[in-house]
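#onboarding

Welcome to the new folks! Below is a worked example of what a typical request in this channel looks like: someone posts a single protein sequence, and someone else replies with the predicted structure as tokens. Don't worry about understanding the tokens yet, we'll cover that in week two.

Example request:
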Amino acid sequence: MKYSYYPGCTLYNKAKEFDISTRKSCETLGINLVELPHWYCCGAAYPQSQDHKIPLIAPFRVLAKAKLEGNDLITLCSFCYHVLKRVNYSINEDEEKKDLMNDFLDENYQGDQRVVHLLEVLRDDLGFERILEFKKQDLSSLKVAPYYGCYLLRPENEIGIDNHENPMILNDLLSTLGIEVVDSPLKVECCGSYLVLVNKEATLAAVARILDGYKKLGAEAITTTCPLCHYNLDRFQEDLKLKGFKPIPIFYFTQLLALYLGADGVEFRANRVPVEPYLKEKGII
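Example response:
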């Protein structure tokens, strides 16, 4: 199983643990990730303005260059996935826009590059049941809440990875790994996203609602698919501690997958809330 791999900016900087655990998990599972040569930022946010063709240039070029590699394009960052999927959808709905972009960039891209998230690859291409063949570590002592956030799922007609109101793809992966899943409608609520840049208090309120809600349901840890969700849920617990909040570990789903597979070198150094004490308490490390 061979895929072109688009890490995106965040996985090369703030979310290196996400990238490392992804590469190690895929290597163990026989998923060959070939990093896209000379990749660059996708733009991070899908443009909402009426005349929004200029912001489409970067993701359009990523898709065009990926098509030349001849493989499906896999990405992990919810923002990257969201932007690339929506650009594909947009140009397939608007031939004039597609022609304009191709003329401007001197490309011949027809909007037919398949863009997939690792969760889709595990569910649809590999199959969750195949993961059981690679089990090295029992994770049944863990009690974890899956958190999807916004960008991975919406708008559903353009993204299509799962139901945007009650997604189960991450739930099902955690169940496959033997983890006790704590499910809640909170899993699709916004964490505040990049609102933190202009209104920290609003982000803090969103984070507090999610964390408090999950803890009341008995969750001992949370796992997410998005670097920004991970940052907000992890980083802002420092502020919540001032209000008597007991910290809760935040994982990338690939870190849990890598632990299950017995992969060496899984890192947690960037976590503001240490996860090692929880894993030691549960006999995982």
